[in-house]
Amino acid sequence: xxxYYPVMLQLRGERCVIIGxxxxxxxxxxxxxxxGADTVILVSPKITSRLEELASxxxxxxxxxxxEPEDALEARLLFAATDDSGLNRRIADDGRRAGALVNTVxxxxxxGFLNPSVIRRGDLLIAVSATGASPAxxxxxxxxxxxxxxxxxxxxxxxxxxxxxxVKAAVSEPGEREMxxxxxxxxxxxxxxxxxxxxxxxxxLRAKRxxxxxxxxxxxxxx
Length: 223
Description:
Layout: E1 16-19, H1 23-34, E2 40-43, H2 49-56, E3 61-63, E4 77-80, H3 85-98, E5 101-104, E6 117-121, E7 124-128, H4 135-148, H5 152-170, H6 174-186, H7 198-207, H8 211-222
Parallel strand pairs: 1-2, 1-4, 2-3, 4-5
Antiparallel strand pairs: 6-7
Helix pairs in contact: 5-6, 5-7
């Protein structure tokens, strides 16, 4: 038992602070921006050229200096991504005292959070991690999942979201709503890329109901 609990965080409006400016810090920053984080702060005397580009276009804020304990204050996520293990431990301790969730380059102590390998297909988010035991295995599994779940899944999840909102408003019986959404999910992935007509989709799904379910509804209606 590794003790890690998987969660997905909404980062809009949250303060995310990265201490460090090298390749690892760059990877952390890109992951945060891809996740929709809108307040990413980078603290380091030197940063990579890609991070400079992101700072220049306003995607993140760069403080060109060394770390200060005050940098940990009010951070929702704090990344200790320097090449100094002693400094990383100090950053992590400051962050925990400030109430931040902390990620360090070397998470051998298991006291912070890990970044899993992630596959994004629109609203579909798949994350995989070997919890630090084998980053190479996580990377391999990510490649395999990317091959299995292509871009068509992004479109498919978008249609399922539209259907869910429609069914919540148009179908009053909870059991039928659940059945319709389950049958729709079983049709994924969808080949066509146009918006599906929702009313016709619901009627088609109703026609696919298992026979036992229809008999039960008929019995309930005649009693």
